[in-house]
Each structure stands twice: as C-alpha cells, then as structure tokens.
Amino acid sequence: MIATCLAACLAAAPFAGQAEVHAASALLTTEFQIANLTYADHTGTHKLQAPPFLYEQSVMIPLRALSQAMGAKVTWNHKTGTAVIEGQTSGKLTFKPGNNNVYQGSKLVTKLPAPVVMASNTLFVPAKGLAQLLGGQVAWDAANHIVRITHQSSEMDKLTFRYHFDVSAEGWKGGFSDLPVDYNPDIYDLAYKRELIPLQDNTTNYGMKLSGHNRSDDLFMYMTKKVAGLKPNTAYQAKLRIGIYTNYENESFGIGGSPGASVYVKAGILDKEPAPVELKQGNDLYYRMNIDKGEQSEGGAEAAVVGNPIKAEGSKAGYQLVYFDYSHTAMTNDKGELFLLVGTDSGFEGLTTLYYDDITLTLTS
C-alpha cells in the first residue's frame, strides 16, 4: 500500500533513534558506544573520526563531540598544544594531551582519572570527568558497552534538531500521493531510499532520494518525520531549513512544464502525521493527502510553497545543493508531538529525482 510504501532505511548504530529531546524537563542525553564510530545526541546520530575505548578503567570519548553535545565551545591553542572548553557554567577549562590535570586559568580544577589521549588526530578524555565538569551525569551500560551522559539544557526555550542521513534515515518516512490507487508501478518509477548523493568523488555524503515519474499530471512526493518529547499543547515558533540536491535548471523545458520551475517545494509542521488516504474521484480511487497542502503552485492551510528545485549555477553540470526556509507557529498535540513535512508538488510530467540532505529544525517556546 502506498501509505506505507518505501521505508527503505539502512541500519543505524545500536542506539540510534534514542536521542529524542525531552523538552518538558529539558534533560538531554548523549550516548557513546565502545568501538562504535557513531554517537547519538538530541540532534540525531553523528559520525566520529575515531571510536571510544577503555583506558585505565575509564571510558575514553572524543572531547569535542561530548563538549559540543553539552553546549560547550571548543578551541585548540596551537601555541600551547592545549584544548580549551568554555561551558555555560564551567568557565574556560584547559586540557593537555598526556596530562590528567584540568586548569581554569592557572588554577588546578581537578585531576582526571586517566590522562588526555591524542589518537587518530582526536583528543579523548574520560567520559565521567568531562561530563561532571560540564554539569552532566554519567551512567554505564555494561551489557552493551554504552556510556550515557545526561545534562540540563542551557537553553530550555530553544531546541535544535539536525538531520544529515549519513548514518541512517533518522526516522524519516517517505510517500507519494495524487496518483491512482491502481497505479502501474512500472511506469511511475517511484523510489524513496537512502543513497549516496551523485556528486563527483563522493563516498561519504548520503541523502534521502525521492524519485517519481509524474504520470497523473500532479504527483506529490514527500518525507515526514515525527518529533516527540515536546511540551504537550504548546505553541512553538518553528524554523525549518531544507537542503535539497537538484540537477534542474531554471530555463529548461519538459512535458507539461519545466523540470525545475514547474516543480514546487512544499513544507509544513503539523500536529498529526501526514499520510495518503484513498478518495473516490468520479469512478476512480486516488491517493490524496489527509492534510491541506494545496495543489501544485498553490500552498494550502497546512503546507506552504517555499520555492522551486532550481540549481543556482544552471550552466554547471551535476547536482547542486539548494536551501529552502519555512517558518511557522506550530502547536503540539496532547502527546507533545510535531510532524515535519517536506516534499514536491509537480506540474512537470516527467521523471523528477531529488536528494534531501541537511535538514534543520529550530523550535522556540
């Protein structure tokens, strides 16, 4: 069935998807796993240059990754060969490779249970020592070799979620509507999956591919993501930035319209999950969205047109990244949930293939 079609996500790290923000209490969690090249925080799952490890009975984790997850700023002093971390309440703390001592200016603040280690061009510190300095709590899951660090958000009224898709689909689902229920899959060429973006020499940058042949004169291709753990029945000022890789020029021609200018990028932030439903139109059944997204170049009550997937340098061959911005006052449902919607409404009666990457949501209550 088209409503549940397409959940083609590659496997993520064992703890991926567990890092939702609990905005009601603003308690944020960051997780690292021994020998795993990914970690998870409240913004999603991210890659590491080198994995955590055990050393002198301490769990050693990347200094920069945990510091930034806990809202601290990290700088490297080339002259002294030290890392400086500046947190909201900790002040400036200095760490030196091969040394257990942590200083605030010239004052010794604490002695770490194990020395700072430089490995694979990455600084590692004992998880417990750094977390406590930044006001966090540490729990060790011995069965799964996972260390969990929790801390209170320093900005309780502002939350940011980032999705890059380099590790997994990060909970996003894809779908299609505005086509017959009995559509022929051989001619619609519908596809939603995580793939390497077709850029020259690209071996690491993945995106979510949405592709389809508009045989019904009005194909809607979309992605949706549930954001949970927010305050129930609460208004948030929401800003959504959507990165899309496109290969279409502005002044191009195609069947029924331009492959770029006749395709309309739409976005919405709702309190219910967008999904296709079957509706009768004359004697035929069609898949239509259960929300008001508008039709083609027109927005609707629950989604707006934010632009066209046209690359900035039209004469340059290949896919290019284009950003689209959407702002909206969104009200959570009684479960503290919001649903993101991004997609394209097409008047171009040919094949459209786009890659979604680098999506950022900012919520302010």
UniProtKB/TrEMBL annotation:
Pfam families: Cu_amine_oxidN1
Keyword Signal: yes
Limits of the Copper amine oxidase-like N-terminal domain: 47-149
InterPro entries membership: Cu_amine_oxidase-like_N, Mao_N_sf
Keywords from the named record: Signal
Coiled-coil zones: none
Secretion signal span: 1-19
Name of the protein this chain belongs to: Copper amine oxidase N-terminal domain-containing protein
Organism expressing this protein natively: Paenibacillus algorifonticola
